[in-house]
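yo

u said u wanted the structure for the complex thing, so here. seqs first:
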Amino acid sequence: MTSAGQARGRKRDSRVDQALIAATQELLLEVGYAKLTVDAIAARAGVGKAAIYRRYATKQEMTFAAAIHDLTLEPPPDTGSLRGDLVALIEDIVSSLANGPAAAAVPGLLADIHGDPALTARFLNTFVALERTYIVGVLKRAQGRGEIGDVPDPDLVHALLLGTVFASLFLLGVGSDGLAQRLAALVAAALVGPHAASDA
Amino acid sequence: MTSAGQARGRKRDSRVDQALIAATQELLLEVGYAKLTVDAIAARAGVGKAAIYRRYATKQEMTFAAAIHDLTLEPPPDTGSLRGDLVALIEDIVSSLANGPAAAAVPGLLADIHGDPALTARFLNTFVALERTYIVGVLKRAQGRGEIGDVPDPDLVHALLLGTVFASLFLLGVGSDGLAQRLAALVAAALVGPHAASDA
Amino acid sequence: MTSAGQARGRKRDSRVDQALIAATQELLLEVGYAKLTVDAIAARAGVGKAAIYRRYATKQEMTFAAAIHDLTLEPPPDTGSLRGDLVALIEDIVSSLANGPAAAAVPGLLADIHGDPALTARFLNTFVALERTYIVGVLKRAQGRGEIGDVPDPDLVHALLLGTVFASLFLLGVGSDGLAQRLAALVAAALVGPHAASDA
Amino acid sequence: MTSAGQARGRKRDSRVDQALIAATQELLLEVGYAKLTVDAIAARAGVGKAAIYRRYATKQEMTFAAAIHDLTLEPPPDTGSLRGDLVALIEDIVSSLANGPAAAAVPGLLADIHGDPALTARFLNTFVALERTYIVGVLKRAQGRGEIGDVPDPDLVHALLLGTVFASLFLLGVGSDGLAQRLAALVAAALVGPHAASDA
DNA sequence: AACTAATCGAGACGGTACGTCCGGTCTTGCA
DNA sequence: TGCAAGACCGGACGTACCGTCTCGATTAGTT
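structre next:
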């Protein structure tokens, strides 16, 4: 066990947890990351600031938890082809980043992660690691089907998929219409040859 | 024009400009973006805060100017092949983002850009537009050589190149060793066929 | 009556009462009134905060109770002379205020009393009223002995005795060595003539 | 000089000083010492909190300064008799403590003084020392007139005068009507004989 | 012996004030 | 007018404390 000592005293109120997450998400959508304040979160949640700092060491951790709370990456389904699998995977990534409170928080959150080693570790160990696992799975499946020979470096593929989505959304502001299909076509073409991209 | 009125009084001291840029760059490296303060910049530069705000409207503009001050994207040379051109282009992007004060400022600056339309516009009109021009040039050159048929959507290629570099450096933390070569190989393969990737 | 309902359930643990008083007194001596906190009292006493607030409505009441807990004003003995009686009375007042936890609490407690009508009433009805009764007794006894003619205003005498002691201890910081004798001499002289002061 | 380095930069705005003192005094009268908050003072004065803490290290110092600001003890006039001089002196003390913001602050301020050595020193060196000087003057004048023989301990007289007034106002709550006359009569009687008290 | 109800230590809860810090503006005196 | 120094307002931060409430475990008196 993480703690041998028996827990005593009043238990954390799970409604407070929920209220905090909900209030933070609402405020992210309403005022954005830059104007998010701890006092406003507490007031919106009907909660004292102490209840926040009992759960999270800093405002950044609180926001990280709220933004990430209902992001659930689905394991990519076996669509029968590498390209189909990639489309599903990319669409999941896009929907994670493009909608809801997460979209409002991502740029600010990224900055905060790059200034807090603890947050960096948590981010890498949850999202990044999971996404990488899925990518490895998709690539191995393609190898099993005979679509590709050697499995390429999963980190490169990861950077390529996640980075392209991220750049479209937050760096270039060019939108993501049809991004999943076009990006999947390109990646599949790179791995198995351009003819794979022509049967779109 | 703003400069139509005849200039009166003392002229701006260009040493102040230089000292500000230098101080900001030093502090970015020493304490990082999150702990960068205007007072510290002024103190380090031996300058009053008014001198800063006479030049820049906000701390974000000041930091933006300092971070990109000595970033110069070179027009990609004609290496004779699409892949060679891409390698050169990507290496330039990597060197822009991976070293010096810019690397320390990028995540924070990105957050600030996403909250200031003026800064967003400046960012898009300088860096993004220039990079896109270079990409279009490389692709057209490849078409001229007959390496590729149709020119693909330059925005997608842009997102792919810039995003992959960005993700490697700031999202996944997997480093960028050999990134330019491997990424260029992959992209070239996607556009002209996997055989292009085998002659690495 | 409030106690008409039949008592049910567990009885108050008298050891808790004692531990609270003791812990408060210790902390008053150690950290002083200003830095006294309810949490610290509870921790020192090995007691939950609820046990405190089951007994006292506010921190002020708790401290009041602890500070005056072992203060017992003795009825002044008949020493045979007004001056002797006054000396005994003043010495009792001094010993109440100058020693132990009470001395550490008095200035802070006075401030709190002046902001809580309930506490004001309790203070006036216990300490002040009792002291006044003793003063009246001493003065009547002196009148009976023929030392003085009319009995002076007991409130003025009270203010004079208590106030002088208080000022010496808490306002001027000049100590109280020999204060009882010298003050009693002065008061006796004022009431019966200065010759009474010469036989010190 | 206390500081050899030449002062540079913007000067303290004396209107801020005045506004702070005035706001604190108003709030003392309106809400009392216990409910006085720094934020309320700043808001009332139209001032940032930093401007307060640039001038005073703590809330207590700020309140001390405001309560004491327009308390000016007049040197007691020569009325021709010890008793007259005492009446004037006591009335000055009463008017200092009984009216205005000081009256609202005194109990709380006293508690704070007894918890801050710096404030204690300032209090002793200003008010207490000045008052003592005046008392010594009055007593010496009486000696010069031949009203009294030896000059009694000025600290005892000080404690007696100040303490009696203080106790009447803040300890016993019996008011101070005619206090100056009656107390002066008593003290004069103690020093020169009770016959002096009969010609009231 | 089972039930009931108030007590216990521990500690989370809402609220409020504290003193600190920082961003962007303004003022002073010198050059 | 520019400039260094630094005071100014506004407002968010994270901490501390008060008095209340909740938890699970005692500890009595009542059935």
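The two ends of chain B are 55 Å apart (CA to CA). Chain B has a mean pLDDT of 90.
cya
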